[in-house]
Design a protein that fits this description.
This protein is α+β, with helices and mostly antiparallel strands and 175 residues long. Helix content is 30%, strand content 34%. The model has no long low-confidence stretch (mean pLDDT 96).
């Protein structure tokens, strides 16, 4: 892996453009990240502008993995949970550019996401991933526990239904 730096991201046209390129690439290649193919760049930019606006008020953290001047991966830590779940965070939108897969970037992003969750006083992480083509092996390897599978949960980007695996993991100190 080349020297990858992971930072929290804030809104700028350059960052929104790079994040939009990643999500369009991932959806084009079948990644199940809540969008259908074809994903219009304008829709991707609107999503990231909204996501980074929510991050700016502390309700989530958007992390980016940088290879030089280019964002090559991202993950979001959702912190805006109901009042009875102040100890929980959700992992969302873990994505790596196809050109940078297999280099440990997703693992590094997940470790940074766990650290960010702990920094925000969270000790339980939850996430979901598609049964078809999802990142189950990654999450298993990172110590997440499979809670179960919901069949026919979502449409795949190119059509057809896929199930979703729900995972959880305790991190940090208990409350």
């Amino acid at each position: 892996m080349s020297r990858i730096e992971i930072t929290s991201l804030s809104a700028s046209p350059k960052i929104v453009d790079m994040l939009s390129e990643i999500i369009v690439e991932v959806v084009t290649n079948g990644g199940s990240v809540s969008f259908m193919h074809p994903l219009a760049p304008e829709t991707a930019k609107a999503f990231w502008n909204d996501s980074l606006a929510v991050a700016a008020i502390g309700k989530r953290v958007v992390l980016g993995a940088w290879d030089g001047e280019m964002i090559v991966g991202t993950v979001t830590v959702l912190l805006d949970c109901p009042p009875n779940q102040p100890h929980r965070a959700e992992i969302a939108k873990l994505m790596t550019r196809l050109s940078h897969r297999g280099q440990g970037i997703a693992v590094a992003l997940m470790h940074a996401a766990e650290a960010m969750a702990i920094q925000n006083h969270r000790n339980l992480l939850v996430l979901d991933t598609a049964v078809d083509g999802g990142a189950s092996a990654l999450y298993d390897g990172l110590g997440f526990t499979l809670a179960g599978v919901i069949p026919d949960y979502a449409l795949k980007p190119h059509g057809g239904l896929t199930g979703t695996k729900i995972y959880w993991k305790h991190i940090g100190d208990p409350l």
